[in-house]
C-alpha cells in the first residue's frame, strides 16, 4: 500500500501582536505636556527610546508640576491643542465633559479600530468606553481584590481561602468581633461612591449600562448597596469613614482596626496608599485573594481607578497613537512597567511570562500576579456617560442617608435615579 502522507506539523501559536508599523515612516512632530508623576511612572524615558526609533519626528516633552488636564480639556473645548495627548487618572472627572453634544467625536481620536488588533487586552480595562466606541488608550489596569491581615485571620480561626461569598465575609466579620471588638472585616466610605462602585459591579450593577442607560436603581445595584448598609448597621462589622484618604484611615490600618478590605491592585503599590502609608508596619502581614462573590454571579473582580490617554485630533495624531500603543501595549513594555513601577500588565498574554508569574509584591511579599491573573478574567463593567459627574454627585448625596440607616438602599437609589434621569444631556 502507498505510504500515507504525514500530517503537517502544527502551526506555532501566533505571537502577541506588537504595534503595527505605520504605512509610511513617521514624520512631523509629537508635542506633549504631562504631569510630573505620570511622566515618571507611566512613561519614564520611553519617549526618548521611541524618538530614537522615529528620528524624523520632532518631540517636545514638557513635564509640569501641576495637573495639566483641566487646562487641556478647556483648550480642546475652545479649539486649542495644548498637547497631542493627555494622561487622565480621573476619567470620571474629565471625559464626561467631552461626551456632551458629541464633542468627543470632533476633538478626540476614536481608538476603537486601532485596539482591535490587541485581542488579548484584559477585558474591560479601557475606561474610555461610551456606547461601543473607545475614545482613549489604556495605560493602567485596575482590578479589585480582597486584602486581608493573614496574622489576624489566623488568630481568629478564619481561613481566607473559604471567604468566597459575601455571606462568608459577614460570618468572618462576626467571628473577628467575637475575638476582638476592635477588628473590622471591611472599610467602607460613607460619603461617596468610592467603595460602592466595586460592590455594585461585582453584582452586575453600577451607574451606567453599555447602552448609556442610568442603572443606579437596578435590582443588582440596590442589592449590593443594601449589603453595604447592612454591614454597617445590621451586622456592625465595618470600619467607616467620610474622609477615606485622610490620615485617620492609615492609622486605623496600623492599629489593626481594619483587618481586610475590598480594594484595587494598585492599593498595595510600594509608593502609594497601603504600601506608602502603612509601609513596614504592615509589610508581609497583608495578603490578597479574589474578591467575594454575590449569589449566582461569576464576576471575579471589578474596576476601580484605572486610567489612560486621550489623543487630540490634529496633524500629530498618528504619531501620538503610535507612541502610546508602543509604550503601553507592546509585550516588552507591558512587562517592563511591572518591573519598573509595580503596575500589573494590560495584556492577558503577559501574565504567562515567568517574570510576571514570579513577581513578588513589595508590600504583600506575595506573588500577587497569580491572583490578579484570575481576577481580570471576568471583571464587572464600567461605562462612561455625558452626565457622569452629575449622576455621581446625586448618588453621593444619597449614600450618607443610606449608610446611616435613614433610608433603605431601594428608597435612596430610586430617588437618586429619578433625579439623575431628569438631568438633560447638554
Give a brief rundown of this model.
Helix content is 39%, strand content 13%. The chain is built from 18 helices and 12 strands.
Written as H for each helix and E for each strand, in order along the chain, the element string is EHHEHEHHHEEEEHHEHHEHEHEEHHHHHH
The protein's oligomeric status is single chain
Count of extended strands: 12
* Terminal Cα span: 79 Å
Q: How does the SSE layout of this entry go?
A:
Elements: E1 28-35, H1 36-43, H2 46-53, E2 57-64, H3 69-77, E3 85-88, H4 91-99, H5 103-107, H6 112-115, E4 129-130, E5 133-134, E6 137-140, E7 144-149, H7 150-155, H8 166-179, E8 186-189, H9 196-202, H10 219-233, E9 238-241, H11 247-254, E10 260-264, H12 273-278, E11 286-289, E12 307-311, H13 317-329, H14 331-341, H15 354-358, H16 369-375, H17 388-404, H18 409-421
Parallel strand pairs: 1-2, 8-9
Antiparallel strand pairs: 3-12, 4-5, 6-12, 7-10, 7-11
Helix pairs in contact: 9-10, 13-14, 17-18
Task: Provide keyphrases for this structure.
18 helices, disordered N terminus, 426 residues, 3-stranded antiparallel beta sheet, alpha+beta
Structure description:
The chain has 18 helices and 12 strands. The protein is 39% helix and 13% strand. Strands 3-12-6 form a 3-stranded antiparallel β-sheet, with helices on one face. A 3-stranded antiparallel β-sheet has the order 10-7-11. Strands 1-2 form a two-stranded parallel sheet.
Amino acid at each position: 500500500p502507498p505510504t500515507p502522507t504525514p500530517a503537517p506539523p502544527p502551526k506555532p501559536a501566533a505571537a502577541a501582536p506588537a504595534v503595527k508599523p505605520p504605512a509610511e515612516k513617521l514624520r512631523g512632530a509629537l508635542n506633549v505636556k504631562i504631569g510630573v508623576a505620570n511622566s515618571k511612572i507611566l512613561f519614564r524615558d520611553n519617549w526618548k527610546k521611541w524618538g530614537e526609533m522615529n528620528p524624523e519626528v520632532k518631540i517636545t516633552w514638557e513635564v509640569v508640576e501641576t495637573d495639566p488636564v483641566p487646562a487641556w480639556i478647556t483648550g480642546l473645548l475652545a479649539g486649542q491643542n495644548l498637547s497631542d495627548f493627555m494622561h487622565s487618572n480621573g476619567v470620571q472627572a474629565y471625559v464626561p465633559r467631552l461626551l456632551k453634544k458629541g464633542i468627543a467625536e470632533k476633538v478626540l481620536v476614536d481608538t476603537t479600530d486601532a485596539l482591535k488588533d490587541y485581542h488579548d487586552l484584559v477585558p474591560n480595562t479601557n475606561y474610555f468606553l461610551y456606547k461601543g466606541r473607545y475614545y482613549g488608550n489604556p495605560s493602567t489596569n485596575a482590578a479589585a481584590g480582597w486584602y486581608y491581615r493573614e496574622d489576624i485571620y489566623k488568630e481568629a480561626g478564619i481561613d481566607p481561602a473559604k471567604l468566597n461569598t459575601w455571606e462568608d465575609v459577614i460570618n468572618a466579620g462576626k467571628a473577628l468581633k467575637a475575638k476582638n471588638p476592635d477588628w473590622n472585616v471591611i472599610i467602607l466610605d460613607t460619603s461617596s461612591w468610592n467603595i460602592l462602585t466595586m460592590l455594585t459591579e461585582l453584582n452586575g450593577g453600577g451607574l451606567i449600562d453599555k447602552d448609556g442607560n442610568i442603572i443606579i436603581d437596578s435590582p443588582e445595584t440596590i442589592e449590593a448597596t443594601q449589603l453595604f448598609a447592612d454591614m454597617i448597621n445590621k451586622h456592625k462589622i465595618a470600619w467607616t469613614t467620610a474622609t477615606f484618604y485622610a490620615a485617620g484611615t492609615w492609622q486605623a490600618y496600623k492599629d489593626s482596626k481594619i483587618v481586610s478590605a475590598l480594594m484595587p491592585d494598585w492599593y498595595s503599590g510600594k509608593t502609594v496608599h497601603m504600601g506608602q502609608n502603612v509601609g513596614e508596619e504592615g509589610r508581609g502581614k497583608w495578603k490578597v485573594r479574589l474578591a467575594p462573590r454575590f449569589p449566582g454571579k461569576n464576576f471575579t473582580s471589578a474596576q476601580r481607578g484605572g486610567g489612560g490617554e486621550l489623543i487630540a485630533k490634529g496633524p500629530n495624531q498618528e504619531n501620538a497613537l503610535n507612541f502610546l500603543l508602543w509604550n503601553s501595549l507592546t509585550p516588552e513594555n507591558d512587562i517592563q512597567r511591572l518591573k519598573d513601577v509595580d503596575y500589573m500588565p494590560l495584556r492577558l498574554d503577559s501574565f504567562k511570562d515567568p517574570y510576571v508569574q514570579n513577581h513578588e509584591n513589595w508590600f504583600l511579599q506575595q506573588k500577587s500576579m497569580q491572583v490578579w491573573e484570575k481576577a481580570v478574567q471576568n471583571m464587572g463593567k464600567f461605562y462612561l456617560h455625558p452626565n457622569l459627574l452629575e449622576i455621581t454627585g446625586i448618588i453621593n448625596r444619597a449614600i450618607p442617608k443610606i449608610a446611616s440607616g435613614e433610608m433603605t438602599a431601594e428608597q435612596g437609589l430610586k430617588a437618586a435615579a429619578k433625579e439623575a434621569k431628569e438631568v438633560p444631556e447638554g
